[in-house]
What does this fold into?
Amino acid sequence: MEFRSSALLTRHSKRVNAERKRLPTQSNRFFSNGVRMHRARMTLPLWGLAAAALLALIHVGAQSMALKASVGNRWTIGPRDTPAAPGPLAARLDQALRNDTETATAFVAYAAALALSGREGRLADAGILAWIAGRAVYLPAYALAIPYARTAAWLVATTGIAAMLAGLILAPTGAAL
It folds into this structure.
């Protein structure tokens, strides 16, 4: 029995090696079991997910640094048994972080649905770009307390989420809408 399995393994290895030599260099990548790797393309919904993760890190970092500046190092490295009394900037950045978390949930769900369903079209793409632009402007507008800018940025981002939903519902699979 051992001889038979080793003979099958040898034939399989020879076949895989022959296929590797025949394929172009760019797609000449294999898993250890001989299966050829598929190179997925980065679509706009996937880039949008990466941008959402980057924006989340920026929100968390800004909020954390503002809180540390307002309450001091002693509270931030301590047990945090008592609630901190953050300054106005830290409080605004904390609220901006909470708002980002609320809208990012819908964005991630729709971007993943668009990427997995193949319903990527102009309407959904415009929604992705609008959400990213709105969220990128939202944090500095909220931190600097610029009148109407925060509300306008929120409206752009929320309209982007609505456009993503419309693109997901209205576009047939693989069609551009």
Notes: The two ends are 58 Å apart (CA to CA). The chain has two domains: 1-39, 44-170.
